Amino acid sequence: MRTKILYVIVSGVEDYYMEQLLVSVYSARHHNPTAHIEILMDKRTYETLPARGDLSRSLEMLSSHYTVVDLDAALTNKKRSRILKTGMREYVEGDFLFLDCDTVVTAPLDGIDSIDCSLAACLDSHCLFKDNPYRESNIQMCRRIGLDISGEERFFNTGVLYSRDDQLSRDFFRKWSSLYFEGYENGVSQDQPSFCKANILIDRKFQVLDDVWNCELKHGVRFLREALVVHYLCGNPDPGREYFVMNDRSVLKRIKESGQIPDDIAALADNPFLGIPPITQLFAGEDIGLFRTLRFRHLRREHKRGKGSVKEFLLRVYYHFVGYGKL
């Protein structure tokens, strides 16, 4: 495999990003034993490694190279992370395949060497933008950075990115970085709106990677069997919403405390289906929109606190008399 596998990490001992990174790097090395795996981090993160004990030693053994950038330690972790992510091309030489930390590699990635373009990524949520479940919120964020994307056909996910080391890639990343920090000052902290704007400014040169390169678990279950990279999407673990084992805070805590990857987690690299809870229900179509509403979030919060029982009882009485066909 000629193309580098690249990660970006900014992490403190209080979060779980380093634990996610260790699992992803393990899975990448498991399937790509000779690949060059590079980790781009800031100096502050690098200085925390000795205190991480076995985890740090495991990460060093599995990876090929650390690139350390001295950034202003007074900046927030998120801002330092985005400086590195949007500026990857400035700090890393050679063609690379960038992977977010919340990923599991489930197959060899050497097929990326045959990609015949400068830049490539997967469509966000595995669909055209007109069908994207986050369409309205993305439109609103892009408006805040002076961009109307309501007529765009494609909207990319930035969790997996291919970049050839050429002038077009350098131009793109330079624009992305500049636009991200303009947006950041206007309250847009997500990097995908500025990514979209930068891609438009280079005449939409980003090519579409096959969905298997970035299987977003929430929306791409149909690609899981053939997936090369599973993106389980986990910023901060949310107790009670573990739709994949790596979203479980207790699992990440086990890795943090031991510095090792448990056998059941290591097994995900060969069979990601093992990470899906035994009790699972799929939702699709109109139901996805329902679960994005404030009404549902409020109802879920009440249910979690046991406060919805009276309403549930009254609804049962009502539909007992009028029939469930009224739903």
List the helices and strands and how they pair.
Elements (H helix, E strand, L loop, with lengths): L3 E6 L7 H15 L5 E6 H4 L7 H9 L2 E5 L7 H10 L1 H4 L4 E4 L3 E3 L13 E5 L11 H9 L12 E8 L3 H19 L6 H10 L5 E2 L6 E2 L12 E3 L17 H10 L4 H4 L19 H6 L2 H11 L4 H14 L5
Describe what is shown at a glance.
38% of the residues lie in helices and 13% in strands. By secondary structure, the chain is α/β, with parallel strands linked by helices. Strand 1, helix 1 and strand 2 (37-42) form a beta-alpha-beta unit.
Order of helices and strands: EHEHHEHHEEEHEHHEEEHHHHH
Low-confidence stretches: none
Strand content: 5-15%
The average pLDDT score comes to 91
- Would you tell me the structural class of the helices and strands? alpha/beta
How far is it from the N-terminal to the C-terminal residue, by CA?
Answer: 55 Å
| Helix run count | 13
Would you give an account of this structure?
Strand 1, helix 1 (17-31) and strand 2 (37-42) form a beta-alpha-beta unit. This protein has a 7-stranded mixed sheet, sandwiched between helices. It is built from 13 helices and 10 strands. The model has no long low-confidence stretch (mean pLDDT 91). The chain has helices at residues 17-31, 43-46, 54-62, 77-86, 88-91, 135-143, 167-185, 192-201, 249-258, 263-266, 286-291, 294-304, 309-322, and strands at residues 4-9, 37-42, 65-69, 96-99, 103-105, 119-123, 156-163, 207-208, 215-216, 229-231. The longest helix has 19 residues, at 167-185. It is an alpha/beta fold and 327 residues long. The radius of gyration is 21 Å and the shape is globular.
